[in-house]
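In response to reviewer comment 3 from the previous cycle, which asked for concrete evidence that the modeling workflow produces usable outputs, we include below a single protein chain processed end to end. The sequence was submitted unchanged, and the resulting structure tokens are shown without manual editing.
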Amino acid sequence: MAETRPVVWSERALEDVEIAYRYFLDRSSTYAAKFLTEVELAADSLNQFSERGRIVPELQLPSLRELMVENHRLVYRVEASQITIARLIHGRQDFKSSWKSRP
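The workflow returned the following structure tokens.
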């Protein structure tokens, strides 16, 4: 059986989710709710299957991985004691500049 680790969210990732959710909410409350559920399910799945995401190609760090959720990249760190959701970045955004923005 796979090792389970808690999944925790960074403040930046929570801000990213809130921004995306509000964007979708202005267009469709149904889609916004669906999107939020998909993000939560993807993140929750990492407690057992943390290495299923691909290594972020722009950084090539084995501990930094991502899952695609709709058109967004759910970026997370695989750590010994936990999985940390680091960011949620839209796939059309320049990853490196988005990654470095908002410390």
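The chain has a mean pLDDT of 92. We consider this sufficient to address the reviewer's concern, and the full set will be provided in the supplementary archive.
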